[in-house]
Specification:
The complex is a heterodimer of chains A (461) and B (274). Chain A folds into three domains: 15-127, Alpha-helical ferredoxin (Fumarate Reductase Iron-sulfur Protein, Chain B, domain 2, Orthogonal Bundle), CATH 1.10.1060.10; 141-235 and 393-459, FAD/NAD(P)-binding domain, CATH 3.50.50.60; 239-390, 3-Layer(bba) Sandwich (FAD/NAD(P)-binding domain). Helices cover 33% and strands 17% of the residues of chain A. Chain A is built from 17 helices and 15 strands. Chain A has helices at 15-18, 31-38, 48-51, 59-67, 71-79, 85-91, 113-127, 149-160, 177-180, 189-201, 218-224, 253-262, 288-299, 320-328, 397-401, 431-434, 439-459, and strands at residues 141-145, 164-168, 205-207, 227-230, 236-237, 250-252, 280-284, 304-308, 332-334, 337-344, 350-363, 369-382, 385-388, 392-393, 426-428. In chain A, the strands form four sheets. Chain A has a five-stranded parallel beta sheet with strand order 3-2-1-4-15, sandwiched between helices. Chain A has a five-stranded parallel beta sheet with strand order 6-13-7-8-9. Chain A is globular and about 70 Å long. Chain A starts with 14 loop residues before the first helix and ends with a helix. Chain B is α/β, with parallel strands linked by helices and 274 residues long. Chain B has three domains: 2-89, Beta Barrel (Elongation Factor Tu (Ef-tu), domain 3), CATH 2.40.30.10; 91-203, Nucleotide-binding domain of ferredoxin-NADP reductase (FNR) module (Rossmann fold), CATH 3.40.50.80; 211-269, no CATH class. Chain B has nine helices and 16 strands. In chain B, the strands form three sheets. Chain B has a seven-stranded antiparallel beta sheet. In chain B, strands 11-10-9-8-12-13-16 form a seven-stranded mixed beta sheet, with helices on both faces. Classes of the chains: A alpha/beta (461), B alpha/beta (274). The interface between A and B is large, with 41 and 43 residues.
């Protein structure tokens, strides 16, 4: 039988419908489609896909189980390495990772590894997740700061090794960026909660409302615990630093998305936290966060939603899937357009943004062609709301408060490959160590750090 | 959950609550604030710490009922509990011996001024306190603050107590009479802080103000609380809440504080707390 060259289509909500709700866009495969898709896998001996997986999932292994219809076994194979599969099965940049290395790419599209991972995670969750086996306690204690993807992964893995793990979270809910940043229509919060429940079943305790560096210090944690992991992420929003940026109507993407996702402002006034957007919204930047912002604005009732970006389409950092979804939903892309000034009225309300057209010059430090303003190409766009989504810097709280910790120029904590900082017993990983990156890279860092912490704890008698 | 263990009605719209939050109480210092969320559907709001007791593990809040959350909070009683209570946040006040300091509190700003007055007195400052409110009924903590002050003045808009007029009138008199004022601390409505800062600027008197803009997380993540200080954007939650009053763009702050006025009214009406 000839191998099908394309992935099985992912069924999705129609764009016209979905911009009226916050429900998830793709529905997920059904069992038959999943089995058919799994059968496309060539089961390569050298498993190239696995080399692209930051959390080391045995990809051909779980796909083989699906092809054989043994979904429970597939779940076991995934869970052996990844405690958050319903999350990574939705937000991973598979095209650059596992799927990017799939042998089938030579003749067509790769196996839809991400969709299969999601299918299994959803199958397992809907069926009711089995309680994990109790592990023999080592009697050692580890602390994890931040309940985001890096921290949760690290905590889950340390618990599996038998350590007593406590996670300290500043917010009132777990998940970090999974909860405050990524919108409901891309990652339903019920799913995040279910995955966190699993981590708790592994024996992890989560304490909320604890702002480490303020409520308790990192030093105190180092005194009380055998090892400490910092996974506080990249939460410091960057602004454009152009005139008028403090007018009412201008949000950082963090503020906008936190209001909507974590505080559920889309359900205001049932929930107390408000958000207001007016008719015309512009998100500045072209990463996943900008796409999330522009698409969220449509769902909140914006009549027009722009992406304004100073480079061209090839430089856009967002995943193709997100860009496609945004276009389908009617987001207007204004590329090679650089904002220079926000204009407001006498009430302090944002009314316009002044922009200038750009052209691409020689490559800059990032290897991308540098955008250069075209004189005389100024334009003014009427907008009610601006959402600044040009990136986040590492959260400064621990770098600022932990004495003696080596912090690099961009504000990130310096670590080795395994997450060891310059302070014995103190590890770090995810965006706080690398600067803003992806959920799965943070999970991978949490995993490596857990291994190093286990080794450290055992060596310290 | 964080239980309410004491409640006092301070004035028509101002209430005091002692909340059990041992971790916060351990670390709380004058000038810092907390973020609370009453329940699952609640908003996160910042409130300044009025006092704390490490032994009891309690934090005292004194708040004015101005929006939906503070009005709802005011209806809670001893035995009720608050879902979330995180802190202490922000930088503590810089407490040292400046010499002669004038501490000015307006309205509900009197509450967060109290721990600062106390701390400044204990470090040997000559403390001149000026409290202001629209009328006598809205004054708070008079005895408490007076007991830690070397000089104590009151100003009310309607003259129902103390000087009839503004705190800035009393301050002007102090400036005229005193040989030297080394520092002024002002906490209260934005307009009051602006007037005080404008006045002291003329005389070159260092002036600190404590800002309370709209916040979501309180840990430097959302940037909702950004204020322009000396032409630079600062986050009140992590860079403040205290700033050099001569550098703050108060007009922008006033506009930003009105961001959700309509939504707030709507939420209040809906909750029947208006």
């Amino acid at each position: 039988m000839a191998i099908r060259k394309t992935k099985h289509e992912m069924p999705e909500q129609e764009p016209k419908e979905r911009i009226k709700n916050f429900k998830e866009v793709p529905y997920g495969y059904d069992a038959k489609t999943a089995i058919d898709e799994a059968k496309r896998c060539l089961q390569c001996k050298d498993k190239p896909c696995m080399q692209g997986c930051p959390v080391e999932i045995d990809i051909p292994g779980f796909i083989k189980c699906i092809a054989e219809g043994d979904f429970d076994k597939a779940a076991e194979v995934i869970k052996a390495k990844n405690s958050l599969p319903a999350v990574s099965g939705r937000v991973c940049p598979y095209e650059e990772q596992c799927e990017g290395r799939c042998t089938l790419k030579k003749i067509g599209e790769p196996v839809a590894i991400g969709r299969l991972e999601r299918f299994i995670a959803d199958y397992e969750r809907e069926k009711g997740v089995k309680n994990p086996k109790k592990v023999k306690s080592t009697g050692k204690k580890a602390a994890v700061i931040g309940a985001g993807p890096a921290g949760l992964t690290c905590a889950g893995d340390l618990a599996k090794m038998g350590h007593d793990v406590t996670v300290f979270e500043a917010f009132h809910a777990p998940g970090g960026v999974l909860m405050y940043g990524i919108p409901e229509f891309r990652l339903p919060k019920e799913i995040v909660k279910a995955e966190v429940e699993y981590i708790k079943k592994l024996g992890v305790t989560i304490k909320y409302d604890v702002v480490v560096g303020k409520t308790i210090t990192t030093e105190e944690l180092l005194d009380e615990y055998d090892a400490v992991f910092v996974g506080t992420g990249a939460g410091l929003p960057r602004f454009l630093n152009i005139p008028g940026e403090n007018f009412d109507g201008i949000y950082s993407a963090n503020e906008f998305l936190t209001r909507v996702n974590m505080m559920k402002a889309y359900k205001f006034p049932e929930y107390d936290t408000p958000v207001k957007i007016g008719d015309v919204v512009a998100a500045f930047g072209a990463g996943n966060v900008a796409m999330d912002s522009a698409r969220t604005a449509l769902r909140l009732g914006a009549k027009k939603s722009y992406i304004i970006y100073r480079r061209s389409d090839v430089e856009m950092p967002a995943r193709n899937e997100e860009i496609e979804h945004a276009k389908e939903e009617g987001v207007i892309f204004k590329l090679l357009t650089n904002p220079t000034k926000f204009v407001g009225n006498d009430k302090g309300l944002l009314t316009q943004v002044e922009c200038i057209k750009m052209k691409l010059g020689e490559p800059d430090d990032s290897g991308r062609r540098r955008p250069i303003p075209i004189p005389g190409s100024e334009e003014v766009i009427d907008i009610d709301t601006a959402i600044i989504a040009i990136g986040q810097s590492p959260n400064p709280l621990i770098p600022r408060t932990m004495k003696g910790l080596t912090v690099e120029r961009r504000g990130n904590i310096k670590t080795d490959e395994d997450g060891q900082t310059n302070i014995p017993g103190l590890f770090a990983g995810g965006d706080i160590a690398t600067g803003a990156a992806t959920v799965i890279l943070a999970m991978g860092a949490g995993k490596r750090a857990a291994r190093a912490m286990d080794k450290y704890i055992k060596s310290k008698k | 959950m964080y239980p309410i263990i004491e409640k006092k009605v301070m004035s028509e719209t101002v209430k005091l609550m002692k909340i059990k939050a041992p971790l916060v109480a351990n670390k709380a210092q004058a000038g810092q604030f907390i973020i609370l969320r009453i329940d699952e559907k609640g908003e996160r709001i910042p409130l300044t710490i009025a006092d704390s007791n490490e032994k009891e593990g309690t934090v005292t809040l004194i708040f004015m009922e101005v929006g939906k959350t503070t009005k709802q909070l005011g209806t809670l009683n001893v035995g009720d509990a608050i879902e979330n209570f995180a802190g202490p946040l922000g930088k503590p006040s810089e407490i040292k011996n400046y010499g002669t300091v004038v501490c000015i509190g307006g309205g509900v700003g009197i509450a967060p001024l109290y721990p600062i007055v106390k701390a400044l007195k204990k470090t040997g400052n000559h403390v001149v306190s000026i409290l202001g409110a629209r009328n006598e009924k809205l004054l708070l903590l008079e005895d408490e603050i007076e007991s830690f002050s070397d000089e104590f003045y009151i100003a009310t808009d309607d003259g129902s107590k103390g000087h009839k007029g503004f705190v800035s009138d009393v301050l002007q008199k102090q400036i005229d009479e005193k040989e030297k004022i080394d520092m002024t601390m002002a906490i209260g409505p934005v307009i009051m802080m602006k007037v005080v800062a404008n006045l002291t600027k003329k005389y070159g008197i260092k002036t600190l103000v404590s800002l309370n803009p709209i916040m979501v997380d309180g840990t430097g993540m959302c940037g909702g609380c950004r204020v322009s200080v000396g032409g630079e954007t600062k986050f009140a939650c992590v860079d403040g809440p205290e700033f050099d009053g001569h550098e703050v763009d108060f007009d922008n702050l006033m506009l930003r504080n009105r961001r959700f006025v309509k939504e707030e009214e709507h939420a209040c009406k809906r909750a029947g707390v208006m």
